[in-house]
Amino acid sequence: MKDLKRDSIDFGKTKIEPLFHSIFFPTLLSMVFASLFTVADGIFVGQGVGSDALAAINIVAPLFLMTTGISLMFGVGVSVVASIHLSRGNNKAADINITQALEVSSLLMAVVAVAVYYWRIPFLRLLGCSDALMPLALEYLIYILPGCVFIVSQMIGTFVIRLDGSPKYAASLEIIPGILNIILDWLFVFPLQMGIAGSALASTLCCAVASAMVVWYMSFRTQSIHIRRLKLSLTSLYLTTRNICYMACSGFSSMLGELAMSMVLLAGNYVFIRELGEDGVAAFSVACYLYPIVFMVNNAVAQSAQPIISFNHGAGNDKRVSEAFRLSLRTATICGVLATLVLTLGAKPLIGLFLHAGTRPYEIATAGLPLFAASAIFFALNVAIIGYYQSIEQNTRATVYMLLRGLVFLIPAFILMPMLILPQGMWLAVPASECLTLAVILLTRAKHTPTPAQHA
After folding, report:
1. In angstroms, how far apart are the furthest CA atoms of the chain?
2. How far apart are CA 358 and CA 356, in angstroms?
3. What is the pLDDT of residue 119?
4. Rounded to an integer, what distance in angstroms lies between the CA atom of residue 41 and that of residue 36?
5. CA atoms within 13 A on the CB side of 354
6. Least confidently predicted of 16-20, 225-229, 357-361
7. Nearest-CA neighbor of 143 among 210, 189, 74?
8. What pTM was estimated for this model as a whole?
9. How many CB atoms lie within 10 A of CB 335?
């Protein structure tokens, strides 16, 4: 059996803590950089274009989250499945699964992008766009759509390259395009005065660069995994469909995680624009720019533990699985507490990066962000636990928990909380949803020793 070794990584034998750290720190660095570059994008737009532009981007943001949701579904799914194949020495099956995930997901996202472009105005209406924000939202949407196609291969490639034993290169897929994004954002928004379109174009170009980096790695540097030519016979198409469905099931709860973020934006946009108008959406957009940092940091915890847990789960090494899970829980707790403290204590200076002090959106955001920040600790633990169930192929449990936090509890919370306390209830809907989900997870958690599925 070929060991997965690159950057001195061996998923089956290296001690869990140094193994986890060797993956976690490059992954964390890339996630934080990606989040900071998104924040920088918001700062440039907020300072260079205005609060209405921030609100317009927040209207379009669910599309971007849907795109990353599809990417995560296939990325996590193929990483789980390929990890198990590799732990058993079945490299050819892992290669085929990886090729199928990259090609099918890219094709799917291209179809979605064309459909959204064709029905762009009804689509924006569905997302809650007002007449006042429609011109800006349309401008942003048209330029960001090509980037949605590129980001699929970028994100799936990150999982695959990390699994190949190259977490540093995987991190560079976020860092290098992110630095380029800041430069292009500044250039397009300020000197070239391209407005909101410049911000979208910068993001699209950077996603294209990251996608090209994935293609280069898979063509020239990969060691344990390779892209294979897929056959087009009926039997091969049937097997591809079966494997894609299995990978989608394995990663479905990750897509639900992104869709949960989309629901936060969608439901929040509806509630804030109804109660507080465009100023309310602009204030809420600040939280939506900052919260992905929390999401990315805790996603780094789950993604770093995933290949370790999946590989050892496939190898039948339950002791290493349990040790990796406990370490991910400890790390998630620390990250969640720190995120809550930073967003609470640093609310005013953070908001001041996006909005001018003394304006109505600024005042709404400073009153609400500390309340919204209470969700971080619950969110961190939820993501770590759900990631564990994904990694050991407990897909039903992972999906149910993700549905609870992203739909079952979230929508009623956004409806009921403002009725109980307005405006605080709008900001407390997400913390309430995450807290209730964690309570259900802890009440229903039982010891499971699942047998890895024998998939081809």
Report:
1. 65
2. 6
3. 93
4. 8
5. 32
6. 225-229
7. 189
8. 0.69
9. 23
The number of residues making up the chain comes to 456
For residue 260, pLDDT beyond 50:
yes
Indicate the DSSP class of residue 406. Answer: I
Query: Are 184 and 204 contacting, i.e. CB atoms less than 8 angstroms apart?
Result: no
User: For residue 33, which of 180, 157, 151, 160 has the smallest C-alpha distance?
Assistant: 180
Q: Is the pLDDT confidence value at 435 over 80?
A: yes
Among 171, 206, 154, 172, which Cα is nearest to 40's? 206
Structure tokens at 52: 């209405």
Whether 26 has a pLDDT exceeding 60, the answer reads yes
Contacts of 68 (CB under 8 A, 6+ apart): 151, 155, 258
Per the CB < 8 A criterion, the answer to whether 93 and 85 are in contact is yes
DSSP H or E run through 333: helix 318-345
Selection from 97, 69, 194, 204 nearest residue 149 by Cα: 204
Token duo for residue 161: 């390259």
Q: Are 159 and 75 in contact (CB under 8 A)?
A: yes
Q: Assess contact for 293 and 339: CB atoms under 8 A.
A: yes
DSSP 407: I
276 within 8 A of 425, measured Cβ to Cβ: no
- Among 100, 21, 97, 76, smallest CA distance to 307 is for 76
Surface-to-core class of residue 90, CB atoms within 10 Å of its CB (0-12 exposed, 13-18 middle, 19+ buried) = middle
Task: List the structure tokens of 271.
Answer: 């509630």
Q: Which residue in the block uniquely carries the two structure tokens 């996630």? A: 31
CA distance 64 to 57: 10
Place of tokens 């809550």: 340
Nearest to 277 by CA among 415, 135, 171, 133: 133
